């Protein structure tokens, strides 16, 4: 059945790849990004600004949404490399990372909740990170804090009145085989590794979308296997 999907971060990375897959499958895809979306209907908006959140709500108007897929994210300069230095990361960078990765998902969920509640089995799925799990933090302070905050926000959303109607899930993956990650591995910025295939992220999301409204899956962790055969 054709679905109406709102994808945050639909211009590149995980969000861009997932948007392309669902668009090719014939679903109605609405992509939020500051730069041209990779597929579907582009909603040009800056999620770090309240005006951007309001523009999204206005553009969607009375469009029923089967799911919000918050698949975007930002991180500090030189994040995930040996060149990252907390002491040289600016206050404005910290605020921007937390604004996009934690505050924006909260505000966007509230803004488009009327659209989600127009459908019978709405889902809200957010991309977190393994670094947002206890004892798995990475040294990128703002990004790690933002992922812990996202998990807490979604756990709290499940306890609100929206949690009675909307199924909320956070997916915490390791490195996913987006074009950017593959380039980082090939150019030596990341250590040699086998990233998680983007298809596995898609299958995870699609499985969540297929579930009945009678089951809740609060969190899924996708961990890269060491020495996996490929």
Automatic annotation (TrEMBL):
Listed Pfam families: adh_short (PF00106)
SUPFAM superfamilies referenced in this protein's UniProt entry, alphabetically: NAD(P)-binding Rossmann-fold domains (SSF51735)
InterPro entries: NAD(P)-bd_dom_sf, SDR_fam
GO molecular function: oxidoreductase activity
Domain of life (superkingdom): Bacteria
Keyword match Nucleotide-binding: no
Gene Ontology CC terms: membrane
Keywords for the protein's UniProt record, in alphabetical order: Oxidoreductase
Family: Belongs to the short-chain dehydrogenases/reductases (SDR) family.
Protein name: Short-chain dehydrogenase/reductase SDR
Naturally occurring in which organism (per UniProt): Stanieria cyanosphaera (strain ATCC 29371 / PCC 7437)
């Amino acid at each position: 059945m054709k679905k109406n999907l709102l994808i945050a971060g639909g211009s590149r990375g995980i969000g861009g790849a997932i948007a392309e897959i669902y668009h090719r499958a014939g679903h109605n895809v609405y992509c939020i990004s500051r730069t041209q979306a990779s597929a579907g209907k582009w909603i040009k908006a800056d999620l770090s600004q309240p005006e951007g959140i309001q523009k999204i709500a206005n553009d969607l108007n009375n469009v029923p949404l089967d799911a919000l897929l918050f698949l975007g994210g930002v991180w500090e300069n030189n994040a995930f490399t040996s060149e990252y230095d907390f002491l040289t990361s600016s206050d404005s960078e910290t605020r921007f990372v937390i604004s996009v990765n934690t505050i924006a998902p909260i505000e966007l969920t509230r803004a488009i909740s009327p659209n989600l509640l127009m459908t019978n089995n709405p889902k809200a799925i957010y991309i977190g990170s393994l670094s947002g799990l206890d004892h798995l933090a990475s040294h990128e302070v703002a990004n790690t804090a933002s992922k812990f905050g996202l998990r807490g926000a979604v756990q709290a959303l499940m306890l609100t009145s929206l949690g009675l109607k909307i199924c909320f899930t956070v997916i915490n993956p390791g490195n996913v085989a987006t074009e950017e990650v593959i380039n980082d591995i090939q150019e030596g910025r990341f250590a040699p590794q086998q990233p998680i295939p983007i298809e596995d992220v898609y299958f995870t999301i699609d499985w969540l979308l297929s579930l009945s409204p009678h089951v809740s899956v609060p969190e899924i962790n996708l961990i890269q296997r060491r020495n996996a055969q490929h």
